[in-house]
Design goal:
By secondary structure, the protein is α/β, with parallel strands linked by helices. It is 28% helix and 22% strand. The chain binds flavin-adenine dinucleotide.
């Protein structure tokens, strides 16, 4: 017998108001208020499933539990506000041009879900598939690009290696001359890659989950996980205890702390990752550009700002403060790629937390504690995985079986030495 009450909600979307041009017009004319995107509910003393963490992973898991499996007696517990973790701080790059077949298949499923997400959620997530370029400045990087392109093609993902002239055609402002400190030899070009509006993804999943009866509790901090006879029994929070036969840890940068509460040790270290944004300029940069050698990447938003990112800070920390050292290095490296940006002003910099694993791949699935599951180890690359991770974790919770698409990412791979080596493709040069 199932431990879940299934409401059989199916695939139909049921918000209290459907967003459309007609409803915009009707409310514009009548002046009627829009309802809140998700509701505040009473915290119950028990749920069928408790999800810790209100980022894209926690909310997507809750949404797919409700929509795909009819499991709606679910609480998402968030210690701050939803999207306040890395999900609201990332640079929103979506792609699937990974290095391992397991990685490529997994992220490709996410790109496919992202392609339909606005329609599925009835929420404009502004997914812009403008192409993604990973520059190669030396023979080693070019060889890895070719390797990635071949693995991608075998998995049906559109990627190819292109030369400096084609790069110049895609990004006219790029210095592809031989005089650069690190001349550009080629690039891995991945047309389906792009950027998205990360807040909208979080809010859209929250709205969808709420519409199906999921409870989203903000300002609710998990302070302990109850385990008895090798099984999870519930969680202790700053607002009271909650009994639950299933607890899913979706807390990214904080995930080793939550797992520790359940007595599960994770091979995860938390590092800050910084990013920055400039003032708005006329659109001139279409694709996303990444340089591992220079440790930078850059994209231009629909509003015209340039968004810059880099690799993680060189020390473990739970601090989310920006540093001058980071911004100096970043600016210097961006100018090596595009010298004509010299007079552009930076507006803002910020940081988020990244849960890094030894093989740069996530840790997903069951743990030695029955009912205590993890969807963590998202490092600097987990936003793009939100939809597929949510879908797979919901399948795992509903069926009790690990879905094939996440089988390679299990926690047991570490003691057993089965790494999923994604270091060459997961993020900017580490
Ligand atoms: C600057 C930056 C740039 C990035 N760029 C990209 C990118 O371009 N593309 C990409 O794919 N990924 C990127 N990432 C990584 C990506 O943002 C994360 O991997 C992803 O958002 C993780 O989502 P999540 O839902 O697992 O975690 P989060 O969004 O971090 O959510 C976890 C939540 O758990 C909550 N929490 C923690 N402890 C508790 C507790 N005790 N009780 C209750 N709640 C708790 C936190 O408040 C937080 O809101 C970037 C990250 C950063 C910081």
């Amino acid at each position: 017998m199932s431990i879940f009450n299934r409401n059989g909600s199916g695939n139909g979307y049921r918000p209290s108001v459907r967003y459309s041009a007609l409803s915009l017009l009707r409310r514009g004319l009548s002046g009627e208020e829009w309802p809140r995107v998700w509701r505040s509910r009473e915290l119950k003393s028990s749920y069928d499933v408790v999800i810790v963490g209100g980022g894209v992973h926690g909310l997507a898991t809750a949404y797919y539990l409700a929509v795909n499996h009819g499991i709606t007696n679910v609480a998402v517990l968030e210690k701050g506000y939803i999207g306040g973790g890395a999900s609201g701080r990332n640079t929103a790059i979506i792609r699937s041009n990974y290095l391992t077949p397991e990685g490529v298949r997994f992220y490709d499923r996410s790109v496919k879900l992202y392609e339909n997400l606005a329609a599925d959620l009835n929420f404009n997530v502004m997914f812009s598939q403008r192409g993604h370029l990973t520059l190669a400045h030396n023979d080693g990087a070019l060889r890895t690009s070719r390797w990635r392109a071949e693995v991608n093609k075998l998995e049906g993902v559109d990627s190819e290696v292109i030369g400096p002239e084609e790069i110049k055609g895609l990004v006219p402002f790029m210095d592809v001359s031989e005089h650069a400190r690190y001349p550009i030899l080629g690039a891995l070009y991945h047309p389906p890659g792009g950027i998205i509006r990360h807040d909208a993804v979080v809010w859209g999943y929250a709205r969808g989950a709420d519409a199906h009866g999921v409870h989203i509790h903000q300002n609710t901090e998990v302070q302990g996980v109850d385990v008895e006879d090798g099984r999870v029994r519930g969680v202790r929070t700053n607002r009271g205890d909650i009994a639950a036969p299933v607890v899913v840890n979706c807390t990214a940068g904080w995930s080793s702390l939550i797992s520790e509460m359940a007595g599960v040790r994770m091979p995860i270290s938390t590092f800050p990752l910084q990013a920055a944004v400039t003032e708005r300029v006329k659109p001139f940069l279409h694709p996303v550009v990444v340089s591992g050698t220079l440790h930078v990447y850059v994209s231009q938003t629909d509003r015209g700002e340039l968004v810059f990112g880099a690799s993680v800070d060189p020390f473990t920390s739970y601090s989310t403060r920006g540093s001058l050292e980071f911004i100096e290095g970043l600016a210097g490296h961006v100018l090596e790629l595009m010298p004509s940006l010299a007079n552009l002003r930076l507006l803002r910099q910020w940081a988020g937390l990244c849960d890094m694993t030894p093989d740069f791949a996530p840790i997903m699935g069951i743990t030695p504690v029955d009912g205590f599951h993890v969807d963590v180890g998202w490092g600097t690359y987990g936003f793009k995985a939100g939809p597929v991770a949510g879908e797979a974790m919901a399948d795992l919770v509903a069926s009790g079986k690990t879905p094939e698409i996440i089988a390679a990412f299990d926690l047991a791979r570490f003691p057993e030495g089965r790494f999923v080596g994604e270091k060459g493709a997961a993020s900017v040069g580490h």
